[in-house]
Amino acid sequence: MFNYYLQLGLHSLKRNPALTALMVMAIAFGVSASMVTYSVFRAVSGDPIPEKSSQLFVPLIDSWGPQQNDHGEPPGALNYVDAMALMRAHQSSRMTLIYSLMLSALPHDANSVPSQATGYAVTGDFFPMFDVPFLYGSAWSNADDDSRAADVVISDSFNQRMFGGANSVGREITLSGHDYRVVGITGHWNPSPRFYAVWGESGFGDPPDFFLLLNRALDLKIDNTGRNSCRGHLTFRSWDEWLQSNCIWLMPWVELNTSADVARYRQFIEGYAADQQRAGRYGWAPNVRLDDVPQWLEKQHVIPEESRISLVVALCFLVICLVNTIGLLLAKFMRRAGEIGVRRALGATRHEIYSQYLVEAGSVGLAGGIVGLLLTAAGMSGVGLLFEPEIARLAHLDISLVALTVAVAVVATVVAAVYPAWRAAQVQPAWQLKSN
Amino acid sequence: MQIRPILATLKHHKAGTLLIALQIALTLAIVCNALFIIHQRLAHLSQPTGLDESHLLVIQNQWANKPTKGDISSLLADDLATLRKVPGVANAYATDGYPLSSGGITYGIGHSPDKLNFVSNTAIYFADENALPTLGLKLVAGRNFRSDEIGEIGGRDKIAPQVLIITSELARRLFPGESAVGKMAYVSDKPSIIIGVVERMQTPYVDSAMAQWSDCSTLMPFHQLVTPTNYVVRAQPGQLDDVAKRVRAALYAANRLRVISPEDGVKTFAQVRAQAYKSDRGMAILMASISVILLAITAAGIVGLTSFWVGQRRKQIGVRRALGATRHDILSYFLTENLLIGVGGVLLGGVLALGLNLWLMKQFEMARLAPGYVLAGVVTLLLLGQCAVLAPALRASNVPPVEATRSV
């Protein structure tokens, strides 16, 4: 029966090619606009570390006070003094502090010029906390953190650039005039958004080239190239005075595995802030936050506004295309009232008429989906027009998007056809036959 | 023209009427807001920086080893000398940031050392006596920095300048109705004297969050001895592209131990501007294409549905023609019918447009929709509807009276 309806449908579509083309194009445009914008939205709004996003937390302490903080929210990073105090307290199973570095890498052959290398200063816990995959070697240990070793972990692409992709564990590398020993090479790893460093970064840039041992970087006074935010008068005159200032720049992360751990840690940082108040360092009541990954990404507005606006507009566009389709299907079906009358008179039930027209609409939807797929593929190349290259490259047409495009087109068209098909099924056979 | 019979007919076509009206309404709501977004984005991206952009290029330079503050001081002087010797270069200076560079230093500036009571946020640009001529900034009062006023600071040194040059917008905020030159302002715990006012110099940021003080910039007489640093180079008229090709080689020839990124180490200001406003331009293009397609689809939908009605009513049209209605009567019947539906649609659409705008204002940083956009959208859609209905209506007016006698 389905095949017969399909044949009838295709036959009828061929009878009004202009009307059919109009419906197909409307659906194709509506679906492809939605899919292109959705592909970007999907890329920027995903959970970057799904298996652990509820176990990783950013502990924040208000070190600026109610007069200088941001609408009552503690600043989005820690100052050096608070960060080091949390590190020393060891109240979480794992903890890291992160800051951004931009260094130059000295080439190994004398003919090339130095190149730029970006990375982060982190503690050894960083790697197991964030499930960083290793190609060769491993992370450094907590003992290495304490002994302030000149260790560095480099990325696979940086290893390719510097060592031709060989296992370079144990080799030396010179970054901005300091020598470091390579202890590990990560596999390709660039969570998107780069949740662990979105404070002051878009979160979608090129993956970092290296991870430096935090204590070593601090010993060498390697300056932070990321965000640094201060309040009041900047009275520091040197690196050491800067460390003691109220400037916030260290991005803290802790791993807390159970809800009891979370509650305990929250209590701990509240207690710490209360101690600071008692000690006279802060003149205000404890104001702390402990955000997990989704909360943190939400707070940092990681999803670009353009992505959300364009998705909303594209979905509205799809709705209008569907309203248009309802009207055209209604016209198309009702024009065949006579034909329906004959079929009904010859014994077709209302239900059969209903299914027949839904199948016909489904085939329109399928055609719309296929044309929409082509438009979506074309639209993907236009994504670069709207978004930064590092976001645009995240959007791509994969199998799931292909399936979704066709499915949305067919389902949307069938839904749009519910009313026109119902009207068609209501046609009175006697009335039609009489007037012919 | 009798409206009552048209309304009576429309009652028989409730679904079709409602669908066309709804489509017009939704289209109006989207198109008004899209036009508004386009206008806002275009206004944003055409904001002037105050710089003579067509002659400028910027170089980001990073030293390869670990130069001390003293090393950088001489390296910087050497580099600026090298750049000035490149054929086609008119002038150059070193700075931490520049308009539209999207990163830089921000301070509060005010009348007292009390930081809780600052008057305005301001972008801080480190500059020397060559900054104004290089950037082509227009000095409207006071004077430029002298070379003996230029100090040197390291990355974490205290910043307390003796003298400042500020933009006229910042001067207006600090000293409304007065001349700012010679007055004192606080950026640190010590007062600084304002020695000059430039007409305009935009901040490094284009975010809407910082739009309120986008013309409030302060120039401080310092060479900041850190790595990386930026060189801003002014080319002689017509030589920008040649200079852009020459500077990298010239700098590497002078000293190889540096990084100037092969991808974006050297950028003309046109590239800086394109990068800064990329999403604004993209948004405008996206909204424009969606509006155009939407209007086309709505017009096509009206043609389709009206054609169907004409086909359905051929006999009635024939009867009316046989009873003495002229072709013109039939034509104006369909035009009026469409106009009635259109008016209903735009009334609903105007409400929807304002509602969508309210929602967008709540969700995103959007301004209130100006009524002019709704009005323009209403006129566009009514005209579009009349044009779309013209072809089917003409076909209807061509139905011969003899149609009335057929197939009865």
TrEMBL record, chain A:
Its membrane topology: Multi-pass membrane protein
Molecular function in Gene Ontology: transmembrane transporter activity
Chain ranges passing through the membrane: 20-41, 309-331, 364-387, 399-422
Top-level lineage group: Bacteria
Chief site of localization: membrane
ABC3 transporter permease C-terminal domain span: 312-429
Keywords for this protein: Cell membrane, Membrane, Transmembrane, Transmembrane helix
Domain MacB-like periplasmic core residue range list: 20-214
InterPro entries: ABC3_permease_C, MacB_PCD, Macrolide_Exporter_MacB
Protein name, entry field: ABC transporter permease
GO CC entries: plasma membrane
Compartmental location: Cell membrane
